[in-house]
Amino acid sequence: MACQKGKGIQRKWMFAWIYPPLLVIFILPEVWDCNAFHPWHSIILSHHWPETVCLMVKETCKIPPNVDYWTVHGLWPKKNQMCNNSWPFKEENVEDILSELEQWWPDVLHPNSTQLWKHEWQKHGTCAATLESLDTQEKYFSKALELYQRIDLTSVLKKFHILPSSNYYTLDNIENAILKTYGVTPKIQCLPPTGGSSVQILGQIELCFTKEFQLLNCTETAPSMLAFKNGRHHTAYLGFFECEPGQQIYYPPIQHVH
Ligand SMILES: *[C@@H]1O[C@H](CO)[C@@H](O)[C@H](O)[C@H]1NC(C)=O
Ligand SMILES: *[C@@H]1O[C@H](CO)[C@@H](O)[C@H](O)[C@H]1NC(C)=O
Ligand SMILES: *[C@@H]1O[C@H](CO)[C@@H](O)[C@H](O)[C@H]1NC(C)=O
Question: What is the pTM of this model?
Fold first, then answer.
């Protein structure tokens, strides 16, 4: 059942209008009921680095020729997933922003990006939709793109001389670039070193926002989004870990052929 706040209050309000002293009693329970449907308080804009996404999968991966920037992974309400099975994603609902989605939110793992958008909508969008500002597929995907345009990670890192290259960086380098630019600490995720290497690979950067879309420090991690494996945190999707502060970070140049 959707949150019937507006309707409910209207009904109670009429009642209160007839019996003014009952106003508080009848409006309060309604508001509490409503809050039960959106218990999340912050939302994460997740960017991923297409080259690293490709490095972590064995299947074919295709980075479109023009893509040499951080792309959107998703817009995720904290501590909340899979909220409404009966609200399927339909591409026609995002028709007006399809070319932007294809440009900034591509799915490098599948020839048709609709799969990623569908997944993101089912898992996260249906939970975000408890907010009026995100309660349609068009609003949800547009808001993600709007926040993504506000946070220009590719340029920020470049400005701080952090470039996809054979140079290595530290977690501090990357965190500081973002903190100095936006005044908040992001959550930065890497692929751990493999095969005797001691270098981790930069994969995902998350920025946190309030429900009013003001930037927030990403200090606490949402337990529901993490699995526990080998004693370390990693996100369930694709297996990124929080980057280790003591290890060098490789920011791999984009290869368009995999
Ligand atoms: C789930 O989505 C459908 C379709 O938009 C809607 O009618 C229904 O009220 C929603 N359910 C909940 C629990 O929000
Ligand atoms: C992706 O595939 C779906 C069918 O699975 C199709 O309706 C849609 O037009 C395709 N979208 C793009 C962008 O190619
Ligand atoms: C985030 O944390 C930094 C210190 O780590 C602080 O200077 C900054 O004001 C905080 N930003 C917000 C939006 O709370």
Answer: 0.81
